[in-house]
Each structure stands twice: as structure tokens, then as C-alpha cells.
Amino acid sequence: MGSLFRSEEMTLCQLFLQSEAAYACVSELGELGLVQFRDLNPDVNAFQRKFVNEVRRCDEMERKLRYLEKEIKKDGIPMLDTGESPEAPQPREMIDLEATFEKLENELREVNQNAEALKRNFLELTELKHILRKTQVFFDEMADNQNEDEQAQLLGEEGVRASQPGQNLKLGFVAGVILREKLPAFERMLWRACRGNVFLRQAMIESPLEDPTNGDQVYKSVFIIFFQGDQLKSRVKKICEGFRATLYPCPEAPADRREMAMGVMTRIEDLNTVLGQTQDHRHRVLVAAAKNLKNWFVKVRKIKAIYHTLNLFNLDVTQKCLIAECWVPLLDIETIQLALRRGTERSGSSVPPILNRMQTFENPPTYNRTNKFTKAFQALIDAYGVANYREMNPAPYTIITFPFLFAIMFGDLGHGAIMALFGLWMIRKEKGLAAQKTDNEIWNIFFGGRYIIFLMGVFSMYTGMIYNDIFSKSLNIFGSHWHLSYNKSTVMDNKELQLNPGTSDYEGTPYPFGMDPIWQIAGANKIIFHNAYKMKISIIFGVIHMTFGVIMSWHNHTYFRNRLSLVYEFIPQLLFLLLLFSYMVLLMFIKWNRYAATNPMPYSESCAPSILITFIDMVLFNKPKDPPEGCKVYMFSGQGFFQSLFVLLAICCIPVMLLGKPIKIMQARKLANVQPITGATSDAEVGGVSNGSASHGGGGDQHDEEEISEIFIHQGIHTIEYVLGSVSHTASYLRLWALSLAHAQLADVLWTMVLSTGLKQEGWLGGIMLTIVFAFWAILTIGILVLMEGLSAFLHTLRLHWVEFQSKFYMGQGYAFQPFAFDAIIENGSASSGEAD
């Protein structure tokens, strides 16, 4: 459990592997996922490493698998995914896999080429069939016009010269097909280029034709062009070629056309049969490949990852041993050694691997063990910055504080229930939803944070019960403790009427849980009462949150034995925060406890001082104004003296934070007679004894090679940031009050302006109206109040944790532990060759 509050203890190890056993041992370590290897060949080019040829072979196998996957998806064939992860194949199995993939690729390419050729032939025959049909219609129309005068008149309209009476007219023609969208431009070009001396007839092909190149459906038209002379024939063919029109032979004699049409139909029927057989064969090949494709991908990626990792190793002079350096968790060394033994046994090697711990002054990586519940909260922390090695981890505390601060802003029993149910649904269905891998980034974010969403919803339900707010209405469970002493007409006619808690209107005891429901229907002072309450609890929780953050820094300083930071940073920071802002919180509780409407003077409600004015007078050493008659200046005896003392002590903390630590470091350097220190002495060692963790620079501030002037500047920046930040951060927590008020008012507006209009309707028409209005209200509630307001509250809560809380103790300047793990590699879909190289 200790690793939940701090990162795991890490150690740098040196690993010696026999060349024959290296592959199997690295494979076992990849299944384990607890070892981060270092690159021992940083200056060696990626193409000059020992196992570069094996990596290229894996790349080639992946290319072939991607080609198969594309073809399988094109046919819509489901790929079998059992969810199991097969073991990495042995090196000798690579040859079998390569042969299998080569055979499948060649067979599939050959089938595709044959199918494309058949489809192209089928397209040509189909176009020729349409040409023969359409041109027959054209020729029949021409045959019907036997009258010579009519023929001369028709040719004259088209600009073609007519023959002399009694002289036979010999016209040439070409027939073909063209894309329908190109036809208008084609017709214009023919008219202009041939100067109107051609006669064009065209007819659309009703059914679309399949393009054999890309499989798209295209629409085409049949055309026939009549002309006279070889010159026009050559010009027409060039224009057809330019517009990519396909020309086909068309006999002049009707008998020849009929004979050709019969032959074309016979060939089309034969082609349909062959195409069907080809597609069936292709489908069978793809179905067989789809059953194993996922497993093949996993195997190839594992092989590739192993060889990438082996490229990070060094060879000894005998070329028989591979040497590696790796970071491993200290608690898992025995598990890693067992995995290495298993790998050695699998390889049949007789030489056991050797794993030695190494001493180093490098900063180890940060490794926080997580499960499916804590993973999302840890991701929120790591998004700000990965913790320094062995630094206090805010994630376990964030599990409670994050949804709670969110709920203060989002408090509504109804809206919280919607959010909690959505999170609970994702949790209950997480196995099935996780198996449905999708590239939808928004859904992946929602699903990854399902436990956060559930807790935010549950906490919002709790704060909604405290506010007694459900969809801007109240629950009167225990009965209101206020009673009306006015008649109904007086209450309805006087909107500004108020109940006096000092009379019998109030029972004298508070509502058992949360706010009294009568405040929800109060018109004149509802917002005033809610503002005062929510503003104060925002400051109270903010000061508690920041104080807890400062206390967390004490854990860091004591763990790293950093006495300088403990004495000259932690203590004055804590005193400064407690003497000013915690005292302000104390005044709030004193005011709540001492002053009431039923109390006699001088503790009556009218005598209650303003906490804000009191705090301002305290800091500025102002004399309080004279109170009303019968009231006291201060809340308790000696308040003025204590306030002045607290401010003076807080001011004295500032020079201690500013100068204490740099002066002590400067004195230590003078004693060591070194300017600057170039050894391993740090302020952690100046303040006390340095342990192994501090030697890694985890949470301790090291100034080994830093000039004393820079230390003074940095300390001044940190002091100013803390002092001014204490004021601004306290004010920043007022966002809890502001967003809570905005959320409640938006819910009230939606109820008043939308849903209440439907509830006022009567009769069957009112039922229809209510259904429509309720649907509109529900859409607005989920879209605006749950999603948009929820996102806004989430971002504000994230800022409060990153800036106001974590800035008190969290450095976040470490680097994450990235172990060699097959699960992560397969999940990412590749072996991350860039990182390995």
C-alpha cells in the first residue's frame, strides 16, 4: 500500500544474457512488463545495429498483414478476436510465418489481378452490348427516313453537305461510350472542331457500371457520330481519345450487328460464371485469413518488439553474450529473475542469466502501481507532471478531494443521479465496452474516467441533499421548521415578505439534514442566504485544502531528510497560512456559534460583524468602527491583541522564507571552503543525513553547482509566489461558490421558463404539450446542466488541484517508468520503433 502514496523504489540493474537465450528471456520480460531497458548504443545508427535485418523482416510481414486486413475490411468479413494474446514465436518460426504471409499475399494479388482483368473485360462487353442495342435504334430511325428530300433537309440542319439527287450518300460513323458528366463538353468540342460537319446521337445507359480499377459505380452514355471523309474521321477519333471515350467496332449491316450481339451475350454469361467462381475463391481465402489475422498481428508485433529491444543491448568482446542495463522495481526483482529462468529453459541454454544491481546517481523513473480504479486519478496527476522519484503522490487523496470539490459546484440530487447512473452503467458493462475498441476520442475519455464520473455523481447527490436541491426544487422529507403566521392572501400579495427567526415563525431547531425546504421558495432573500452560506464554505474548504497541501510538503522534507526546507520553508509557510487564513475560518465558526436572532445583546444577529471587514482591518492594522449601540467591537476578549500578534508573526515568516535557506547554504559553503560546491553535497546533506532516496534527487532541492546569487533569486521568487499565492489561491476557491450559484440558477431558469409551462396546461392537449415540453427540458438539462456545466466544474476542480493544492508540495519534474510490455505495445498497435531506436 505504501507505493500508493509514493512511487515504487527502483534500482538500476545490469543483465547478462547468452546470445542463444536472449530472445526467449526478453520475450518473458515483455510478458511480465516490469523492466525498462536503457539504450546502450545511443551513438549507433538504427540501420547499423545487430538485429536490423530481423526488424526489417518484421516490417515486411506487418505490411503484408495490413494488406490482408485492408482486403478483409473491404469485403466486410468479421475478424475473429478471442482476446487472447499468443506467446511470441521462436525465431525459427519466423520463416514459417513469412512463407505463409508470402503465399497469402501472392495468391490474393493474383486473384485480384484476375478479377480486375475479368471485370474490365466484362465492362467492355457490357458497354458493347449497350452500343449494339442503342445504335440499332439509331439505324432503324435512319432506315425509316427514306424520303430523299427529308434526308437532304436533315443533313442541311446539321451542316453536313447533301449529295445531288439520284446520287447515293456514303457516311462514315464511330460508336462508343463516355462518362455522362463529360458529354456536354464533348458535344461542344465536336461542334467547334468539326465546324458542325458531324451528326451526333447519344443515349444514356440507365444502370450504373462498375469501374474495375476502384470499384466505383459510374454512369455513362452511348454515342454515335456520323461524318464524311477521312479528315473528319481522324479529328473525331482524336477528340474521343482526349475525352477518354471508349470506341467500339459496330458493323454496318443489321445481320452482322445481331450476330455480334448474340456473341457478346454468350461471352457475358460465361464471364459472369467465371467472375462468380473467382469471387468465391477470393472470399474463401479472406475468410481463412480473417480467423488468424489478429493472432498474426500480435505475434509479429511481439517479434518486432523483441528485436527492437535486443538492439538496445551491447555485445561483449566474445560476441556470445548480450549486456543490458534496465530499471526495475525493487520489490519485483525475484519475479524478474524467475522470468529470466523460464526464458533460459525455453531456449535450452545451460548458462543462467545474471542480474546485478548497480549503484548510480541518476534519477530513477517514477513508477506508481495502479489498477482500473486508480488509473484515471493517476492520469489526472500525471497530466500536470510526473512526480519526482519517491515524491508524495497526490493521487490517493485526489480520489476523495476531486469529486468532493466538484460536487460543491455541481450539487444537485437529480443531476448527480444522472451522472452517477451513467458512470455506473459504464462500470457494469466495462468488459464488453472495453472489447469494442473504437477510435472515438471523446468516448475513450468518458470510458477511461468512468470511476471518476461515478464518484462525481455520487458526491453531487450528497451535496444536492445538503443544498436540498433536486432539479431546482426541494424535498420536504422531515417537514419545514418554519411556520407562516400570515394568511394566504397576505403571502401571495407581498413578494418581499420575510419570516423573522426571532419570533414563533421559527421552531428554534435546524432542519435535521441539509437546508430547510422553505428556502427554495423564498423570493426576497433566497440568493442572499445561499450566497452567504456557499461563500463561507468555499473559503473554509479552500483553506483546509491548501493547509493539507502544505502538510504534504512536510512528508517530503522528512522523507528526504531535507532539514533546511523543513525549518526554513515548511514551518514559516504553515504559520503564515494558519495565522492569517485559518484564523479567518475560525472567525466564521465563532460568528456562526455566537450570533443568532434569538440571542440577547450583544450577541444578537444585528451585532454580528462582517468577517471580510474584520480581516481587512486586521491586516491593515485599522481600528474597528464603533459598533451599534449595545454591541461589542470584538467577537471575543483579547481579539485585537491576538490579531495584531498574528499579523506580526505572519510578516516575520516572510524574511525567514526569503533568506533563511540561502544564508544557511552560503554558510555551509564557506565552511567547506568551496565556491560553488562541485561534489555531491546538497542542501539535503547540509541540513542532515542524506539517505539513498535523496541521493537520487527525488524531492530534495539540490544546489550542487548553483551560484549563490541564483539561489537567492529562486528563493525570492518562491517566497513571493507563496505569499501572494496564499491570497490569490484563497480567493480562487470562491469559484466553488460562483459555479454552485450559477448551476442552481440555470436549473431554476429551465424549470421556470420551460417545464413549468407544460405543467400549467390542462386536459388531453395539456398531456401532449407536457410530453413535448418535458422532452425539450430533458434535452436542455442533459446537454447544458449535466454535460456543459459538468465539464466546466470538472475543469475548475482540475485547476484547484493543479495550482492551489499541488503547488504547495508537488514538483512534478520526474519522468515516467515505461517498461517493455507486450500489452502496451499491442494496445498502441505498433512496436514504437522510434523510441526503441
TrEMBL record:
GO biological process: vacuolar acidification
Superkingdom to which the source organism belongs: Eukaryota
MF annotations from Gene Ontology: ATPase binding; proton-transporting ATPase activity, rotational mechanism
GO CC terms: plasma membrane; vacuolar proton-transporting V-type ATPase, V0 domain
InterPro entries documented for this protein: V-ATPase_116kDa_su (IPR002490), V-type_ATPase_116kDa_su_euka (IPR026028)
Bilayer-spanning residue ranges: 399-427, 447-467, 537-555, 570-590, 641-660, 736-758, 764-788
Keyword field: Coiled coil, Hydrogen ion transport, Ion transport, Membrane, Transmembrane, Transmembrane helix, Transport
Region described as Disordered: 684-703
Pfam families: V_ATPase_I
Major localization class: membrane
Topological category with respect to the lipid bilayer: Multi-pass membrane protein
Coiled-coil residue spans: 51-128
Localization (cell): Membrane
Functional summary from the UniProt entry: Essential component of the vacuolar proton pump (V-ATPase), a multimeric enzyme that catalyzes the translocation of protons across the membranes. Required for assembly and activity of the V-ATPase.
Family per record: Belongs to the V-ATPase 116 kDa subunit family.
PANTHER family according to UniProt: V-TYPE PROTON ATPASE SUBUNIT A, VACUOLAR PROTON ATPASES
Name of this protein: V-type proton ATPase subunit a
Gene label: LOC115620184
